[in-house]
Amino acid sequence: MGTSLAPEGESEVDLFQRVSQTFRQMAEIARNIDVHEEEKIFYSHLALHCMRFEVCIERARSVSSQFNGDVIDRALSCLYSLLLETGFHELPYHKLRLQDLNASWEKTRKQEHNAQVVFVTRWMKLGSPEDHLNRIDEGLEDCADILEKQQKQQKQQQQQQQRRQQQQQPENVLKKHSHDVLSASNYEPSYVVWKAAQALFEALQKCKGCSCSKQHEFGAKLEMGTYRRPVKKTDKSLNTRSNPSVMRCRDGDATRILDFEMFLSMEHKWHEIRVQTVKERVVGFAMDGHATPSLEAHKAKVVENLCKSIDSTKSTAWQRLVLKLKRGQLFNERVEKTNFWIDKSAEPISLLKCFEERREFFTEKTKRILSLIIGYAVLHLNRTSWLQPGWGSANIKFFQTTTRKTPLRPFIQVDLPEAGTTTDVEPDSADKDDASFEDLDAGHPCPALIALAIVLIEVYFAKPFTKLAQMSGIPLESSSGHITLVDVCQVFNGEDENEIEGWRSQIPEDSHLLKAIDNCLDTARWEDEEGDPLDNAAMKSQIYQDVVRPLELHLTSGFSSIPLDDVDDYARQLDFGQWGQIINDHESQISTSTLPQEPLIHQRSPSPAVMLLDSGQLGVQLSPPALQKLLHQISMANSFASSSPSLKSLSSFSSYEPNYRVSQFFDDEISDGGYSNAKTKDYIRWRFEYENVYAKCIRAYLPDPPSGPVKIAILDTGIDRDHDAFEAYEENIKAKFNFYNKSQKSIPDLNGHGTFTASLLLDYAPDAELYIAKIADKENATPNAKIVADAINHAIDNWNVDIISLSFGWPSTNFEGFDELEDAIDRAHGKKILIFAAASNSGGKLGRAYPASSSQVICVHSTDTLGTPSGFSPTAEPDNLNFATVGESIESAWPMLLCNDTTTPQRYVKSRSGTSYATPIMAGIAAFLLQYARLHLPERAASALKRKEKMEALLKRCAKRGPNYAPRGNYYYIELSLHQHNLFGRELDRINDEILETLKR
């Protein structure tokens, strides 16, 4: 390794990266100055070498590879030799002079173009001898080759070491590690896909015509993909039947196979097609030259009429047509069995429709994967006819399979124009019909990037862009529905003049996604020095570096186990309609003989809890044990009857059916005598541990009176204001409002649930301000969504709270008032108000309730005092954060008028279980964390903690116990104590450092 001579504070690698960027930018200016043609070529090469250096550094850092200091030193020397000797002579070492050059250039870059030209002509040796430039060119190219080769060798060594480790590990661990190796692999995208894609479009257009009495209407859906994974170098690599629809090529291969998976429609009936293209190293695509002898040996017929080729597959079920693209023509290759059994009776669903009606489809993982795939699609299809003017989420489609699955396989849909219509995709020769779109996008050299930015924003928020604009109160510029660059900038960045906050404020500042969106909208980034759009090659290289690469990091930073080289195949295994769950192989290979004959309706299983039966519905009053026993008998009878036709009459024993549109409070776990009493004592000890933490970190530092208290709104059934539990906290209750009955000023609790949860909040946040919203009354099962939305908006606008606690939910998003409630939750999230909601008490039967299932809400599960997941808590979702805290045998206040338990006549408390009660405990812990930050941390850190992502990060840190911690049952169990393994079991300085470090991530 070379000796570092870089100044203290900047490593040699950092210097090399900055110098490479500086020289690349200077070279791009130098090649456009009035110099000799040989120099223009040299500076083009220089820009390319510097770009290779930048990619090497970024790639090596992403996989923790080592750098060769000698090669870096040699490259820096070559670059330094391009500078004039004057100007830096006062600095003793050339590396220090290069650092000074970086600083000077950084200032100059902010000035006008003429100033940049003056800088370049002053400091670079323009007009150098050709032999000198050739030596520099060869030296830099050699350095880049060595760095890339060494990275490849390091990768192979890592893989060999990984394989040795895998031989000693169980199978399930092997699978994970293999993903890690693949995801770390080096990659430089192939820029040949766009040529093949455009050639395919033109070839399809050529064979549209026919002699049929009625002209057919054709449409096409092309699968969007990354086209990353390379072909294995085996004889079988040319046979892609076992793994179709993916491009498998590298620039070093002599022959490349590029498969396009697509569907063609004729009279609105979709037919699956696989198109193979072949590229050769010398002559380009086979369509531009002669095919290899091995491929010519197979004589295939030219596709003259698309309709005839499509008709040939109608007689055989579950078959697809394989076509080959050669010399700009399509050839009939064969018919093969499909492995994608789409339900032809169900219309493909658009991404826009998913935003409007299927928001629950989107998990953090599916969002990030989808963003990357669509980003790659723009990289590959930009300036082709597949991305037509005005494209967007309405043109991206998903198919449903015969087994009611919706694989995460996006297709871009286009109409095939009449034969003879121009398909020239150069910027200066667009169709006149597209002029209106071009006028609207004037000012951006690459309109496809505007559309990509819109889709990325939509995916992140799982909302149509028009909805985001409406929520911001910003009217869109075009009445045609086309979204302009001005629209995007206003809605995303906000308007200072009208004090409208942009949606970008809700994306973390250090997010790779935010970087990709900003780069898409930065018009200057996509222009050359003369203000013209970048040429095709430069444009694609820039799109990869500035948009696609950040999207790759956006995915891997959240889901490092997902292999980048296999993203396409990985995504196909996910059921988009079931929160991104893996599609089982046996489900995807069901025999066609077992398929249902009736049309399938695109439905999603309801996500969260089924409402438990109330004793009043039976017409009798039963004690809890008797009620539980009878409910169990009814459940068993219904289950048995549904599976046995001869016993279906038993189902009439109860008229009850689960109502997936009705909300409920999640407190249906009934105490069971002595066992529960013992568990309640465990809970009291658990709470005592927390109180010790609170006393150490808050009470000892809180001024009197407290300044900057945390404000919490609780939406529930009201409270018993006369209860002894609230006597000492009279000053804490700052406001109350009866949304259930606005004519009544008081908020009496005739149910008990609200008193119980409010008392819990004060147990865990005794110095917080409490705001009580009564949204339900005696009946415990039906909070009204519109009333809840009204209460949330009031908490935002009038109470200005920091936290909202919701201990109820709906089993699905299909209920009256959903839109109003969703808008209110979005408003709260936009105002940086933390919302906590109960997961539900459905156990493994159903998933999270709404709003706990919302991406804007922190979902709360339940455990016992040891962190073991409660049986009634929903199964942890593998692709979401699952936070849990104690929710079993919780003791809290109960309305005095409702207490008929003679065992505790003086205390007026009850012991109950449910995610309803884990929720205010978690909200109280969050209030503690906010209060701690306001007392001990800088104001900026305390403010950042109000963002959902930062609070989640800190809660994750609170859950960790020691260096080898792993979530128990995939739950992050939150419990605070003074134990040394707990975050708060150490000195305040160390706690502060740990929290600040967590908030930086």
Automatic annotation (TrEMBL):
InterPro entries: DUF7580, Peptidase_S8/S53_dom, Peptidase_S8/S53_dom_sf, Peptidase_S8/S53_subtilisin, Peptidase_S8_Asp-AS, Peptidase_S8_Ser-AS, Peptidase_S8_subtilisin-rel. Keywords: Hydrolase, Protease, Serine protease. Residues 195-556 form the DUF7580 domain. Residues 149-178 are annotated as: Disordered. GO terms for biological process: proteolysis. Residues 153-169 have a biased composition (Low complexity). One of its GO terms (molecular function) is serine-type endopeptidase activity. The active site is at D716, H753, S916. Residues 710-959 form the Peptidase S8/S53 domain. Belongs to the peptidase S8 family. This is Thermostable alkaline protease.
